[in-house]
Amino acid sequence: MNLQLLFSGFSTGIIYSLIAMGMVLIFRSVGIMNFAQGEFLMFGGYFCYMFNRLLDLPIGLSLILASICMGFVGVVFMRTSYWPLRHAESKAIIVSAMGASIALKEGARLIWGAVPVTVDRASEGVVNIGTAVIMKQNIAIIVIAFMVMVLIYLLLEKTFIGNIMQATAQDQYMASLTGIPVIVSIGMTFAISAMITGIGGGLLAPLFFLNNTMGTTAGAKAFAAIVIGGFGSVPGAIVGGIIVGLVEAFGGAYISSTYQLVLIYVVLFIVLMLRPQGLFGEKIQEKA
Amino acid sequence: MENTMKERHLDVLKLEHVSKNFGGVVAADDICIEINPGEIFGLIGPNGAGKTTILNIIMGIYDADKGNIYLGGTDITKLPTYKRARMGIARTFQHPRLLTRCDILTNIQMGIDLTKRTQKQNVDESELRELLEAANLQDVDLSLSVGQLSYGQQKLLEIVRAVLSHPYIMLVDEPAAGLNHREMDYIVALFNIAVKKGIAVLLIEHAMDLVMGICDRITVLNFGKQIMTGTPDEVQNNDEVIAAYLGGSANAED
Amino acid sequence: MMKGTRKGNLITGRYMITLTCITIAGCFLPLVLSSYMLRVMNIALISYMCVLSVYVLLGMCGQNSFAQAGFWGVGAYITANCLLKLNLGPIVSMIIAIAGTALFAFVLGFAFFRLKQYYFTFATIGLMTIFNGLFMNWKEVTGGALGISGIPPFAIFSFEFSNETSKFFLIIFCAFVVTFLMKILFNSSLGRQFMAIRDNELAAGCMGINPLLTKSKAFAIGGALCGLGGALYAYLSGYLSFQVFTYNQSTMYLIMIMLGGTINPIGALIGTMIISLLQEFVRPLQNYMQLIYGVGIMLLMIVQPEGILGGIKALYGKYNERKTLRRSEA
Amino acid sequence: MTRKLKAVTLLLIAMLLAFPVFAGGNSESSSDGPEPIKIGLTAVLTGDRSLEGQYSRRVIEIVEEEINGSGGVLGRPIEIVIEDSLGTDIGAVNAYRKLASDDDIVAIITPDSSNDGMAQSPSALEFRILTTAQGSSPTLRDMCNNDNPYLFQIRTCDETLCKALIDYAYEEFGPDAKYAVIHDTETSSNDQARLFTEALQAHGVEPLVTVPFTTGTKDFSSHIAIIQQSGADVIIAAAFQTEAAILIQQIRSMGIDSPILGSNGFADPVTIGLAGELCDNVYSGVQWVPETTNPKGAALAAEYQERFNEACGKSAAQVYDNINIICEAIRIAGTTDREAVRDAMSTISDYHGAITTYDCRTNGGCGLGGLLVRVTKGQAEVLGEIISEKDI
Predict the structure, then answer these.
(1) Chain D interface includes A110 (CB < 8 A)
(2) What is the ipTM of this complex?
(3) In angstroms, rounded to a whole number, what is the distance separating the alpha carbons of residues B108 and B160?
(4) pLDDT tens-digit series, residues D137-156
(5) What is the pLDDT of residues B142-157, one digit of tens each?
(6) Which domains, and CATH codes, for chain D?
(7) Whole-model pTM?
(8) Interface mutation vs chain D, best among A6, A8, A255, most D CBs within 10 Å
(9) Which among A66, A183, D2, D357 is most buried, taking Cβ atoms within 10 Å?
(10) Chain A residues 249-288 within an 8 A CB cutoff of chain B
């Protein structure tokens, strides 16, 4: 039984890691938390549904096409919600992102209707390990998500484009001085962030189905994941997401099933009280 | 307002073997300083010598690794910043930290609040007028937003506020940086008023003519070590100081 | 307090504008509005009190909290329980609600304000989720998912505030008193401490301000405001359920104050009115209502990042600069 | 932002806001012919429960055409005015009061949730308008009976359906079957779980374990693990459609194929659409399924499917019945005066709607019955009709 909980907790957790990773990439490059990241998950799922069910393409192809569309959504989102406000206070950008999340939710409902929908599973059937019955979809999610993370790591660390994005993330002003087109680089960061989270939506859809407001709760859990993992650290986001998934699974079974969502935030407080900067984050240094 | 510190104890502020390092980088090494009431004490040294670090250690922003700090005889090494401020240490910053979105009077009022809370005395108008005149701010409309003051005026305002909070000692961090000569005279005027009230001043400054002019005693720091402490003319003729500033050491004299 | 040369500079004279707006609204609106719009105005004024709590926390003290709707709920449920279970008088219940929520927020403040900046904000998102979970599942106190119905209207001695207009006068009176208290707070030493912390916490420490205690005081004042809002909502609607005290409601408060401007309470009033009326105004759009609403928020932010008031202040700032230049040339 | 661009955007926003003012009231206010009779409907058009709103919005077209086609009511056409309740109490009350302050609105229908119904009750008392509630919880029924003469619960109370399902299951699975209960803590699911347990206790059987979960939970592996451990061989469950579909899917994928006794969300076309064949062996005592044996209901389901190419959901059938029963009351009253229509409503004792027959002599639980269904091969198969008598 515990093995089942481990796998389902791990697979949902790794989806939260994908969302959290998307958020951290944006946070590192422009310094604000994207409050509409949950909506990227939902849109990614709906694009996958559009390709898979409406155009009857295989699930693998649908996932890829969905993430490409999400790339464009990321860029459009950046251009409308962040770029005009890049010199404004961070609170203004947060509120603009909130406005965007309301608009994205309603947009999805108007385009794809309010009836919950689903997509084919990445891999059908179940695997029996001892008494535990584990859905192949959970394993597929973990494998695909892991591949995406490796891909992102290679892109950011090893390629030239990655260096440009890292440079812009460190210091936009300096980057523009060295000839890097800052708007293109930030646009790419948003695109990649939306693609990662969008894929998470496509993977999650067969398990938890799609409706236009699934993004909000998923986004809130991703926040918890980032804070537990420590701000601004990509490995922190990944580990934080998995911790949230596991807490949700095991907390629900052993502690209290009614307050499952609340347990995540109780763990969040405990971590913050012990290590105010999260597991991997650096202490926020206040300059005198 | 007669300063009670004089009768109570000989020195206002005493640093005993204070040292601090940030992971290998020695910021302060075995610093011993004693400052008497109403004395202007200079702290000079090349950039990165650890001057501001000491200020932060006195203020409690950083905790000293070794040694203790005494304010009028009581040990304040372990106290949090706000308690030290309430006991009578005022601080100004290299870049002025004023309430940017408020008007000038509110900023001045901050200093007065501290006095009312700690010494239960109200500050009368004449004292404020005297300080404003010394800082040549007397004709500025106090209801204007602080943002409309020049950089120099903001630094002077910060010193005025520090004096108004009637501390035992004022830690002043590079007041003359970015000021023209006329404004430097205002600083000297403000310091004189402070000394008259018995307030001691710990001054960090690079403008040598200002330091040598008004300081009673000076300590020279280099790479966190205390080279010497003495009167301005002793410091000027000490060859080790000259070596640190002019001769052998690589860093350029500013 | 020092009698400085305090002229009608926009930054200091703002309270008069807010107070006069509220008194004018108090006299004319009940005659003009239908009872539907009066209910919308009542809800807007209650939201105004909670947005004032965000103003104290964010505008004055620089701390961004997402748990204000939770405290709003705590105030409402305390009132309901005092009235129905302990059958205390309406005035006593309201006072207990305000004091109870304030004390609760003060105690929570000591735990939460050890965290800095973003960490604090996200801890309050967690707190909001916990509040909503408790409101939904704690049957004995909050009636669980069914909520609490049959809350008697507010009454002083024998006069019952039962119809919409009398409720409006009660709420707008409270709004007036609360705004006046804000004026006193802003000019008090506590208000100055909040602003010192907002500008730079370390520098505030150097001026003898205990950051943890002062921020907890701000949280307590925010709690008191939300407690009052909660009590008034309980009397206004007569029915409480968890559906209202949600994370989305807290984000709504942030949007309201950001649109209005975080510099002073007139911003809170403007922002609240714009959002509340915008929601009712676009009702005829039916299906597309929320879409226009979301896009509207984005556009308003893009055009006026510092909020409506920020714009006016910027205009006023230019006028001021010319004034100083003239003075220094003279 | 250049000054010109700022001005243009401000103009755009002003236009954006002004547009709804000119759009004014609802679009299809017919000018020619007699004044239409207006009936108000508050429904959740946006947010989490927007699915109900979508059904309500679509079924209105069918109802209006049907009634206006057959000569309308008292010779006048009817017009349904819909307002969005945004899924919260405040939204529901604002929508209600906007409708109520329009004098030619004769009656108002609440959204499909007990919370919203209870929130609107004080306003119904204030405006003294006939209000038909779609919520199914017993608490709402008591409020209709005792506190608010204007509030009628035009719905079968959960008690009847839950009791009928448990009685059927007791015969079907025998006295020594062991039961486990899992339910959402949301209002109606909460009540249904309690009613299921009480019906079981009436048969002298105790559920082995009761596992609550909060609305919006997606990962039930921990909850199902508890049920597995309890060794129950029949699972009783109460939840909305989305959670129901996820729950069924996860139960079946964990290799548990014991029968599931579900609340009305479990045999809903949406749930079957999502979980498909996995829904087999699910029993439910429901208000409505598209495959209903009720003649009026079957006609409505066929018309809805043909017009919208989508199965007709419970909310659609409920709004259909609510509107028709209000029209019946108006016909009996012979006038559109609000008091008269209310009094006429309480005289209706045997009205045959698309879902069931209605007896409104007492305000609470006017619906008398429903359907007992089992899902086989992805289709809801009606096992029998549930009917109960109202003790006046």
Answers:
(1) no
(2) 0.84
(3) 8
(4) 888 888 898 889 999 999 88
(5) 778 888 888 888 888 8
(6) 34-156+292-369 (3.40.50.2300), 159-286 (3.40.50.2300)
(7) 0.86
(8) A8
(9) A66
(10) 288
